[in-house]
Amino acid sequence: MTPLLERGRALAMPVLRAAVEGLAAPMDSVASYHFGWIDAHGRPSAADGGKAVRPALALASTEAVGARPEAGIPGAVAVELVHNFSLLHDDLMDGDEQRRHRDTVWRVHGPAQAILVGDALFTLANEILLEPGTPETGRAARRMTAATRKLIDGQAQDMAYEHRERVTVAECLEMEGNKTGALLACATSIGAVLGGADEHTADALEAYGFHLGLAFQAVDDLLGVWGDPEATGKQTWSDLRQRKKSLPVVAALASGTGSADKLAELMAADSRKSQRESGDFDEAEFASRAALIEEAGGRDMTLEVAHDQHRKAVDALHGLDMPQTVRDQLVAFADFVVVRQR
């Protein structure tokens, strides 16, 4: 974990935890399970509660404009709540059974609680952000609302693409920009706004976050096919099991190679099978599909996107007047994004 992440967790997590534990029962305990603070039986747990990327970036953006990091805490907590609202709903919609090495909320507490607690976290995010009642909070809330709408648009696109035989690379990148890039863009501007930044500065930091989000998602897509389950906390070949049109798959299908043709035939056959039949594939079948994606260039192209978006993220910081220590942290975090294993 980078120093930026460690510091973000130290400052924002106590406030986040106090807010979540103030929810009405049983939503408080269900949410606490999701965050890894308790186990399925309500006992204290030291489970991995996530990297807390968004709070760390929000606080760094506050310092980037010369404000104290405490000024950005409402934004840091709000974006983390929105992120986890989306995870609770996405896990249910995608049928994901594991997150952070544990059963997902809908598996433990049922689909209704997953939906309800997700809604509660989203509402709580808005309450926390607006509570100070300053002009800056209004500006910050508008950015978070716009980002949340794009996040939902991205999830809708992701689900729609699962039922299409072909998706273009441009469509896939647009979806990932909405689903991942928008909230990271919000995180890296919301703290600056709360710290009194002008729109030009906030927009530049937002651009850094958007491109960082695309790099982050590209790496996530690689881990979703080739990631180590011990590191990712998900099943082997997790995205292939869900038939996701992630970037490596889309890039492979667009390559025009023989491997792409074979992959397309297999995926077309999938769409004609029942859910039960398509769920019976063994590990060798998924390994074969991963090999076809790699042979068709899907892995290399996705890695290329990750590095290109990393470069654009760092370039967005050029010309911004900020403390050198903060600039170094943001650049180091962008570097971390493209080499991470989880």
Would you spell out the secondary-structure blueprint of this structure?
Blueprint: H1 3-21, H2 27-35, H3 53-64, H4 73-94, E1 98-99, E2 102-103, H5 105-109, H6 111-130, H7 135-161, H8 169-194, H9 199-226, H10 229-232, H11 238-241, H12 247-253, H13 258-271, H14 275-278, H15 283-295, H16 298-316, H17 324-337
Antiparallel strand pairs: 1-2
Helix pairs in contact: 1-3, 1-4, 2-6, 3-4, 3-8, 3-17, 4-6, 4-7, 4-8, 7-8, 8-9, 9-16, 12-15, 12-16, 13-15
Keywords:
single chain, 342 residues, mainly alpha, Farnesyl Diphosphate Synthase, two-stranded antiparallel ribbon, prenyltransferase activity, Isoprenoid_synthase_dom_sf, Polyprenyl_synt, magnesium
What can you tell me about this protein's structure?
β1 and β2 form a beta hairpin. This protein has a two-stranded antiparallel sheet with strand order 1-2. The protein has one domain: Farnesyl Diphosphate Synthase, CATH 1.10.600.10. The N and C termini lie close together (11 Å). The protein is globular and about 60 Å long. It has 17 helices and two strands. Helix content is 72%, strand content 1%. It is mainly α and 342 residues long. It holds the Pfam family polyprenyl_synt. This is Dimethylallyltranstransferase. Belongs to the FPP/GGPP synthase family. It comes from Streptomyces oceani.
